[in-house]
Amino acid sequence: MPPWSKRNLRLPLVAGLLCGCLLPSEASAVEVIIPTVLEKVPHDTSAFTQGLLFHDGFLYESTGIWGSSNVRRVELASGSVLAQYDLPKSDFGEGLARVEDTLWQLTWQNGIAYRYDIEDLTLIDTAQYEGEGWGLCFDGEQLVMSDGSPNLSFRDPETFELLGEVEVTFDGTPVEDLNELECVGEHVYANVWYQDVLLRIDPSSGEVTAEIDAAGLLTDEEYAQADVLNGIAFDAETAAFFLTGKNWPWVFQVMIDGEDTPQEGSSTGGDTGDTGDTGDTGDLDSTSSGEAPDAGDTTTGTAASSTGDALDASSGAGAADADETSSQGCSVAGGGSTGSAAFLTLFLLGWRRRRHGLVSPPRRGSAPPSRRRNVPNL
User: Fold this and answer.
1) Torsions phi, psi of 218, nearest 5?
2) Domain with 64 in it: what CATH number?
3) In a domain, 373, yes or no
């Protein structure tokens, strides 16, 4: 079960209180990565970001909300909109992907995909599909699409015909709410709706191979005016990622360990301010001077089951799976850990997750129902 699942800490915590010991669990095979912030650039706070990509020095963005959905070309350094195509007022824009010199844009519940000329954003084609549209990316051969379920579907980049699908799992557990996507090499990166994490997925098996902990990019004050993390773009030349969210004031340029190191001097440039002011820098290797840190400083970790390793593993990835541990009985993990130390471990792991909004939605920065896909009572 993913460590940010809302059920993850409840049963182990209760069991620790009742029998005074730490329930054992197997170490997760999923790597935990904390991105290194290089810099931040302005982002249009009116943009309800649903899709993001980087090409030829520009950001291309798909925005949602009925009556104001569009696709746009954005100047990276300033965040200025250089070109824009508005969707019909009945459409809710979603994921965005580039196929050669064209863009495909999804709609949420309309079942229509729009295709544009990337140069002037003129509409050149449409396609229809069944179900909802959430995220979209192109891996060089086929389109990869999410619909909010644990499944990724593969589609023909010319006809949009369905070619197949795969279920995404985290340590064997299906992952719901897969949202915005970015295809990078042999991986697919996915936002998880209402979580401050990205998942790196092997599309051939559906297995999650890494969790990227993106909590703390915004300050508390900025979160209060923004919505959820939802925007991933990749610059193949520098191997840097661009992360943003719905109505966020910034686009963050970050390095994520596991992708190729960028060429020297290939930062996007521009005086974008002090990246050290981006929130909880205790969990992000961000700089206080605006200079890009060495990519080697990116912090990684692997989930562990022992008491000592659990506190060191990033984002508490060593927390026991409630469903698995409930049937294992009460025994001491780590060969002699005391009940009080075990309880403290569980308490600190749970505190850290709640502090960073990784337990369950809604969380800080949650939008009113009218801004959350217009779904009532969430």
Assistant:
1) -100, 155
2) 2.120.10.30
3) no
